[in-house]
């Protein structure tokens, strides 16, 4: 993988040559650039393009750094359903496990090895998401008189959920870090697509019928979503 020096930092970058006329640059994770170019753009030209956008890349990288500092998961605590739970590590000759106890989240590990946070909590969040979102989807689908065929838990980089014409709903497990009213807003949003497969005025009327404060919940997700979407990405 090639590297490029921008300011005082070294970035790895991936160039994808595609049948396109424009150039797209994205910072996928801190220190990793993805640049999509037309087929005829050489690696040498790509270096020049990236240097031309050095200020933008630096600002984006600094934004990622701030997100990591504000992250709702770190070595001391996690956020689950909008509440903070402090991590208590316990070592025992048992299989690794995670359990909530009052305002603590107890992590049991074998021997003296405490696994990386992503190895501990991503599977746990996904498991909780499957259970909780299935329950809430069933609850709201019943109220809205719609039928959901299947629920899947995913890890999209920019989407919180999606709904197909086959009545399948996908959720991003990261929504489990949001407060409960925000989680319900997402469920209602996706279930509403089973009545209106668009974002028309009629669609938002359906959402408002079941979530009168949906504008506040939607705004919360816009303001805080980036932080949640980038947790444990590195």
Uncertain residue ranges:
none
- Give the amount of beta strand, in percent: 25-35%
Strand order of the largest sheet: 1-2-4-3
CATH superfamily of the largest domain: Metalloproteases ("zincins"), catalytic domain
Q: How large, in whole angstroms, is the Cα Rg?
A: 21 Å
**Structural class by sheet pairing and helices:** alpha/beta
Q: What is the CATH domain class of the largest domain?
A: Alpha Beta
Number of domains: 3
Order of helices and strands: EEEEHHEEEEHEEEHHH
Q: Give the terminus-to-terminus CA distance.
A: 17 Å
How helical, in percent, are the residues?
Answer: 25-40%
Residue-averaged pLDDT: 88
Q: Do you know the CATH topology of the largest domain? A: Zincin-like
Annotation keywords:
UTP_pyrophosphatase-like; 11 strands; YgjP-like metallopeptidase domain-containing protein; 6 helices; alpha/beta; 4-stranded mixed beta sheet; Zincin-like; 3 domains; YgjP-like_metallopeptidase
Task: Describe this entry's structure for a reader.
- By secondary structure, the chain is an alpha/beta fold.
- The chain has three domains: 3-69, no CATH class; 77-115, no CATH class; 120-229, Zincin-like (2-Layer Sandwich), CATH 3.30.2010.
- Helices cover 40% and strands 26% of the residues.
- The chain has a four-stranded mixed beta sheet, covered by helices on one side.
- Strand 1 and strand 2 form a beta hairpin.
- Helix 4 (180-192) crosses helix 5 (201-210).
């Amino acid at each position: 993988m090639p590297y490029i020096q921008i300011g005082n930092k070294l970035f790895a970058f991936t160039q994808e040559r595609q049948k396109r006329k424009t150039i797209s640059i994205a910072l996928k994770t801190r220190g990793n650039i993805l640049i999509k170019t037309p087929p005829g753009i050489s690696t040498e030209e790509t270096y020049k393009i990236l240097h031309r956008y050095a200020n933008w890349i630096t600002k984006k990288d600094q934004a990622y750094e701030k997100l990591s500092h504000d992250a709702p998961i770190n070595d001391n605590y996690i956020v689950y359903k909008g509440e903070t739970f402090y991590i208590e590590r316990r070592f025992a000759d048992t299989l690794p496990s995670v359990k909530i106890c009052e305002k603590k989240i107890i992590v049991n590990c074998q021997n003296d090895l405490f696994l990386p946070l992503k190895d501990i909590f991503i599977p746990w969040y996904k498991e909780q998401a499957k259970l909780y979102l299935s329950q809430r989807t069933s609850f709201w689908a019943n109220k809205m008189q719609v039928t959901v065929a299947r629920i899947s838990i995913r890890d999209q980089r920019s989407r919180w959920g999606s709904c197909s014409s086959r009545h399948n709903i996908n959720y991003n497990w990261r929504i489990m870090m949001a407060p409960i009213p925000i989680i319900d807003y997402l469920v209602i949003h996706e279930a509403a697509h089973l009545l209106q497969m668009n974002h028309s005025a009629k669609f938002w009327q359906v959402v408002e019928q079941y979530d009168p404060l949906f504008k506040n919940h939607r705004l919360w997700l816009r303001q805080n979503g980036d932080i949640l979407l980038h947790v444990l990405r590195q």
